[in-house]
Structure formats: structure tokens, C-alpha cells
Write a structure and sequence with these properties.
17 helices; binds NADPH dihydro-nicotinamide-adenine-dinucleotide phosphate; binds magnesium ion
């Protein structure tokens, strides 16, 4: 089954020209989407709490930010671009009662809609337009005349007009220049969570740590272990990005390729694949969402403790030192 993909010719920006688009949050996605929409000639207002660098950034970009409640009141399309764990509370306290029938409530990740934290009132449709890239890329690609591919989905029972508005919105942020893939809220939410847990963040971090520990415990120098198991990962991922597994295997030595085929399946085993299925099932049943929102609402104690402990790992310490030797890296510290 091939996905439906929309391009510029499928989207009509005029559908938005008499509408006000309220962007709530001026973070990674908010600052990028808001500026792109404004540069596309659309009417954009910002809902951003005062007293933070993001508020000052919005002002320096020529916006006059208002409260989330005020932005929800003024907007015809209201896009909630706050951290996922925050959205449900802000929606209930500041947004819901300011929505009018005919408004469209938007998001860039379906987490809160799918897991019942954001329930729109009668007459308000849900619309997801999700760029498949971080905010700075959404902005820089647009400025360069391109765009980042997006996903589009509408909530249950949404009018066909809502999809058309979504395509116009995607055009406004540059998405239709690259391609906009039709999906559903549940598919976007579940695949996004699975990807970051099993592969992109959870899977890769744990793989790197395990490889590093194996070498260090066997008596090799931590600096060597860092280069082999973390630093060089970028090289491999860049090859994936350009040409998939085949191009990576074409570019590395035959020895590396043979080791890949014969050893890889011993690292990611049938047991690992079974665990991936369990992780997916926990996402589908809402168990992960409940656990994460409970953690957030109880003050994120475990989350913050784990963050601090992970920042202190030996691989992080040796990495910090080594990155200082590599001036071309543009090393970052948190
Ligand atoms: P950020 O963390 O970059 O931005 C958060 C914004 O929310 C800031 O303006 C921040 O303001 C505000 N905020 C944070 N906490 C609160 C609070 N308690 N009350 C009111 N405002 C608050 O978010 P992202 O742009 O990363 O994520 C936004 C959405 O986009 C999420 O749904 C995410 O899943 C989705 N998304 C993100 C992508 C990414 O690459 N980042 C990619 C695709 C989708 P302040 O400065 O005052 O804290
Ligand atoms: Mg994601």
C-alpha cells in the first residue's frame, strides 16, 4: 500500500488568508512554524508565557506574544506547540473554554489527542501537521527555498475542509515543497513513540553504552572505546541517511560488511525483537503514556534523577574531553 503524498500543487494557501493562526509556544517547532507562516503572508499570533528567553525571542522576531488563553480566543486555527507532557494541563486550564465552533485545534504530535488528554469541544476539528525534522531545520530549509517533509492527519469525524486547511498550513511552513504524507493520529503517535523508544533514542543509546562498556571492561582505553562506539556512529548514520543500508555496506570495508552480517543478528536477537513487540504493545494500550504523564504530574523525580545519572556516565566524561580536541565538531555541553 503506497502512501498518499501531497505537494505544492495540492495545497491552496488562500484558504488561510482571512484566518488567524495562533501558535502556542515559541520553542523549537513554534518559532520555526510561526516565522514560516508569517513569511508565507499569513496572519500569525503567538501565545507564549512571559519571563523566558522564548518570550524575548518572539519579541525580537517582531511578534507581540499574548497569553495562551488570549491566543486561543483570537485564533481560528490554534496550534499547541508545547512539550507533550505539559499540553493536557494547559489545554484544560487555558485553551478549551476559549475555543469556538469552527475553530481547528492543531498539533505536531498526536500524543495528547490520541491518549485522551486533549478532547476538543463540539464543532472543533483536530488537525495534525507534523514536520519530520527539528524546528531549526524547518526554518532553515524554508529560508533556503525548500522545506521539511511533513505528516498530515485529521481527527475523527473532521470535515474535509479541515484536511484542505491542513494542506494550506503545510504549504505555509514549506512542507508541501518536500512532500506531505497522509497518516492518522494513531499511526503518527504510535510509530513516533516506538521509533524513539526502540531505535532512535532508547535502542541506540543503550547499544552504544553496551559496546563502550564491553571494551572498557576488557581493558581497552576508554578513549578508544569512545571513538569506536560513539564518535564513528555519525559516519555510519550519514551513509544510512544518504543511501540506506546498501550504501553504508558499499562504503565500508568488506571485512566490516562481513562482520555486520554475521554478528549483528547476535546483538539484536529474537529476544530483542520480542521485547520490541512488548514495547509497541505498551504504547498501543496507553500504558507508556499513562506512566510518563504520572511521572510528570508527580514532579518528574525519577526522570530528573535518571537524567543526572546518565550525564555522569564514564562515556559522557571521556566524550566531553575528546570533543574538546575536535574543533570542527562544534561541541555542545548541556
Ligand atoms: P519546546 O520544548 O522546544 O518548546 C516548548 C515551548 O513551550 C516553549 O515556548 C516553552 O516556553 C513552552 N512551555 C514549556 N513548558 C510550559 C508550561 N508549563 N506552560 C506554558 N508554556 C510552556 O517544544 P518542541 O517544539 O520540541 O515541541 C512542541 C511540539 O512539537 C511537541 O508536541 C513535540 O512532540 C512536537 N514536535 C517536536 C519536534 C522537535 O524536533 N522538537 C519534531 C516534531 C514534532 P518557556 O520558554 O516559557 O518554557
Ligand atoms: Mg518524535
Amino acid at each position: 500500500m503506497a502512501a498518499t503524498i501531497y505537494y505544492d500543487k495540492d495545497a491552496n494557501l488562500d484558504l488561510l488568508k482571512d484566518k488567524t493562526i495562533a501558535i502556542l509556544g515559541y520553542g523549537s517547532q513554534g518559532h520555526a512554524q510561526a516565522q514560516n507562516l508569517r513569511d508565507s503572508g499569513l496572519n500569525v499570533i503567538i501565545g507564549q508565557r512571559p519571563g523566558s528567553p522564548n518570550y524575548d525571542l518572539a519579541v525580537s522576531h517582531g511578534f507581540q506574544p499574548v497569553s495562551a488563553a488570549e491566543a486561543a480566543k483570537q485564533g481560528d486555527l490554534i496550534n499547541i506547540l508545547l512539550p507533550d507532557e505539559v499540553q493536557g494541563d494547559v489545554y484544560r486550564d487555558h485553551i478549551r473554554d476559549n475555543l469556538q465552533p469552527g475553530n481547528v485545534l492543531m498539533c505536531s504530535h498526536g500524543f495528547n489527542v490520541h491518549f485522551g488528554q486533549v478532547v476538543p469541544p463540539q464543532g472543533v476539528d483536530i488537525l495534525l501537521v507534523a514536520p519530520k525534522g527539528p524546528g531549526h531545520l524547518v526554518r532553515s530549509e524554508y529560508e533556503a527555498g525548500g522545506g521539511v517533509p511533513c505528516l498530515i492527519a485529521v481527527g475523527e469525524g473532521a470535515a474535509d475542509d479541515t484536511l484542505q486547511l491542513g494542506l494550506a498550513y503545510a504549504k505555509g511552513i514549506g512542507g508541501t515543497r518536500a512532500g506531505v504524507i497522509r497518516t492518522t493520529i494513531s499511526e503518527e503517535t504510535e510509530t513516533d513513540l516506538f521509533g524513539e523508544q526502540a531505535v532512535l533514542c532508547g535502542g541506540v543509546s543503550e547499544l552504544v553504552k553496551a559496546g563502550f562498556d564491553t571494551l572498557v571492561e576488557a581493558g581497552y582505553q576508554p578513549e578508544m572505546a569512545y571513538f569506536e562506539c560513539m564518535h564513528e556512529l555519525k559516519l555510519i548514520v550519514d551513509l544510512f541517511y544518504k543511501g540506506g543500508l546498501s550504501y553504508m555496506r558499499y562504503s565500508v570495508s568488506n571485512t566490516a560488511e562481513y562482520g555486520d552480517y554475521t554478528r549483528g543478528p547476535r546483538v539484536v536477537t529474537a529476544e530483542t525483537r520480542a521485547e520490541m513487540k512488548k514495547i509497541l504493545a505498551e504504547i498501543q494500550k496507553g500504558e507508556f503514556a499513562k506512566q510518563w504523564l504520572d511521572e510528570y504530574r508527580q514532579g518528574s523525580k525519577n526522570f530528573l534523577a535518571r537524567r543526572a545519572a546518565e550525564r555522569d556516565l564514564p562515556i559522557e566524561k571521556v566524550g566531553r574531553q575528546l570533543r574538546r580536541l575536535m574543533s570542527w565538531i562544534d561541541a555542545k555541553e548541556v
